[in-house]
Amino acid sequence: MQKPITTLTISIPIRPSDLEQIGKSVLQYGLAIVFLWFGGMKFTAYEAQGIAPFIANSPFVGWWHTLFGVQGASYMIGFVEIAAGLLLASRRFNPLFSVAGGAIGIVTYLTTLSFFLTTPGVFEPSLGGFPAISAGLGQFLLKDVVLLGASFTILGSSLADVQSRQATQKVQKTPGKRN
To answer: At what angle do helices 95-118 and 63-89 cross, to 10 degrees?
Structure first.
């Protein structure tokens, strides 16, 4: 006689909307940490040299090395990244800060993704070039697609929070209404 087939039912004591909120928080504060950490690293010679090939080969930001030098360009990027991280981390105080942080993220990651087209060594020649990307430069840049998506998500949800706060304040200030 065969044993009956048993089914396994998993009960998760958390709602999908709660999981979504956890995900949004991880995106928000995770991106803040990325910006703060990467921005802090820009104040080291190691990082300045590491990003130098990306900057030097870019038609958009290549002039930064001429104007500021390799370390100066890295400092400038570091200041912007730390500012973005602080703005993103300040969402609880005012979502308008996070709107600015999300916008900086979008500009940052669109810029870094442009390096795919301008930096030598992104595509792996031993595999025939495009679409094969190199383990170093190509894979390093590819993660910015996800960070760009996170920046758009944060910008959109922060704008929604700003609008919601403005609507709530408008209702509270409406003459003749009792609160």
So the answer is: 150
